[in-house]
Design goal:
This protein has 20 helices and eight strands. Helix content is about 60%, strand content about 5%. With about 500 residues, it is α/β, with parallel strands linked by helices. The chain is globular, with a radius of gyration of 24 Å. The strands form two sheets. Strands 1, 2, 3, 6, 7 and 8 form a six-stranded mixed sheet that branches. α9 runs antiparallel to α10 and α16 packs parallel to α18.
Length: about 500
């Protein structure tokens, strides 16, 4: 199985939902007030106090985290803010004076991105409901205007131009409604939209896998910058690689976004810059998959593949093998997100087709693609093609045999055991003795995965434990199920596996 995939038909009881805490966007001069901005910081403090009065916590960086500021490494400031934002069910943005200062990289100069910008980027990815307050008389600077255009912020109806006293009253009313969970319809509160999320996905598999509609190139360039610096790009890509080795997918995506913004400065297309685009869009799919960014999203997995297609058309990506397997994984995940059976069948059938192509090209070890094909066929079986169950089970068993034969790592073998046994558990709903055998195999697989958890394999351990917990719960072993579920949540939180966390919390 590839990152971000799934194959279960039902889900666990939800975890404890995140605290109903409001996030106030980062500040002018990045968390450190000065004499010219005291009024603005006073408004922020007023909003914090209003939250306390109304019983709704409002997270304000300079109040809740006094250790943050200009004297703190920008990476620490960024991580602290984003960690809170992605777990908050409401974002309030105040636009006054200027919104965020580009991250200062010392001798490398200023980045194209500010912490405030990265917050808006993440809010658009996680669909965090957002309210914008513009202090009357404020005109956004050109770069903020560009960002507003990219994210379609001003098209939202939750955009208010008010003076400071009106903002205070408006926020109080908002928090009161938010506390009761009954926001009035006239608030029109909704998430920041993804401007390319609709009408940008093709039904025909050949057309979709050749598309460059969602390519990053040419869409995210800063308007008022011409000082392209390859070393800044290298810095962000290096930080992303470091997070891949031992850290957090959320931070990794932040750094990749910042690398993309800097790569987009200017229009020159020398080979060195093209190679950085190649590295960016090779890193992007895995992290986006674990974060659950599937489908025709502005900056999701598909967008990274479309960027690869764009690079191929420019002559810079032709020496890479076409990613039939990763595309199969993405089509499978898109099928899970589709709302209509017609589109579900269409996407799962495409996943089968693409996984088969990958299998034909990798005779030595086609196990990853076979696992995708098995999962997609099992989904198609539930959607009215029951004869495909046997093909799916056959592929799952073949995956186990291949990985054992080639001496694959315990974690990889364990993953295959869990996937195969979970499928057999679901199929054998009315055959108790087969369910008992499947649970034993899942227990063995989870133990193999847990024998050595490394950052690149952490997501597979999370998914296996979550599925094992689901099977245990269905079989009536609720205490053991709860322990597995808790362990999965702890791992997912530690490594930023938001897609897995949301499956446990929201379904």
């Amino acid at each position: 199985m590839m990152p971000g995939e799934d194959s279960d038909d039902s889900v666990l009881a939800p975890l404890t939902p995140p605290q109903r805490r409001v996030f106030l966007s980062s500040v002018f001069q990045e968390i450190s007030p000065d004499g010219g901005t005291q009024g603005y910081f006073g408004l922020r403090r007023t909003i914090y106090d209003t939250g306390e009065q109304e019983g709704v916590p409002v997270w304000v960086a300079e109040v809740d985290r006094e250790d943050l500021g200009r004297d703190t490494p920008w990476t620490k400031n960024l991580t602290a803010c984003i960690e809170v934002l992605i777990d908050s069910p409401l974002l309030i943005v105040i636009l006054s004076h200027r919104a965020g200062r580009p991250v200062d990289l010392g001798e490398l100069g200023s980045a194209a991105s500010s912490i405030f910008e990265v917050e808006l980027f993440h809010a658009s990815q996680w669909k965090v409901p957002t309210v914008f307050y513009v202090v009357r008389g404020y005109e956004p600077a050109p770069e903020l205007t560009n960002l507003i255009s990219i994210l379609r912020l001003q098209e939202n109806k939750n955009w208010f131009v008010l003076d400071e006293n009106e903002i205070e009253r408006h926020v109080r009313s908002l928090l009161r409604h938010f506390k009761t969970g009954t926001l009035a319809e006239d608030w029109a509160l909704r998430a920041i939209p993804d401007r390319l999320s609709d009408g940008k996905s093709f039904a025909a598999v050949e057309q979709e896998i050749q598309s460059d509609t969602l390519s990053f190139i040419g869409r995210f360039g800063p308007r008022d910058r011409s000082d392209f610096n390859m070393r800044r790009v290298d810095r962000f890509l290096g930080l992303a690689r470091k997070e891949a080795e031992g850290g957090n997918n959320v931070d990794r995506l932040s750094y990749l976004w910042m690398a993309m913004r800097d790569l987009s400065i200017g229009e020159a297309w020398e080979l060195a810059r093209a190679e950085k685009w190649v590295e960016l869009c090779e890193q992007w799919p895995s992290v986006a998959a674990w974060l659950g960014l599937h489908g025709p999203l502005n900056t999701g997995v598909s967008a990274a593949f479309h960027t690869q297609n764009d690079l191929r058309s420019r002559g810079f990506f032709r020496d890479r093998e076409f990613p039939y397997g990763p595309y199969a994984s993405e089509f499978y995940s898109m099928g899970l997100a589709c709302e209509t059976p017609r589109w579900q069948r269409r996407r799962f059938a495409a996943a089968v087709q693409l996984a088969s192509r990958h299998t034909a090209l990798h005779a030595h070890d086609p196990s990853g693609a076979l696992a995708i094909r098995a999962s997609a066929n099992l989904r198609l079986a539930w959607l009215g093609r029951p004869w495909l169950v046997w093909s799916a089970l056959s592929d799952y068993r073949r995956v186990c045999r291949i990985r054992e034969k080639i001496g694959a790592d315990n974690s990889v073998v364990g993953e295959a055991l869990v996937e195969s046994a979970f499928a057999e558990f679901q199929v054998a709903r009315f055959v108790p003795w087969k369910r008992t055998s499947a649970l034993a195999r899942m227990r063995e697989g989870v133990a193999l995965l847990e024998s050595k958890i490394t950052p690149p394999r952490a997501g597979f351990a999370v998914r296996a434990k979550r599925k094992f917990a689901l099977a245990l719960e269905q079989a009536g072993f609720r205490d053991e199920a709860e322990a597995q579920k808790k362990g999965a949540a702890e791992l997912a939180t530690r490594y930023g596996m938001l897609g897995q966390l949301r499956q446990m919390r929201d379904r």
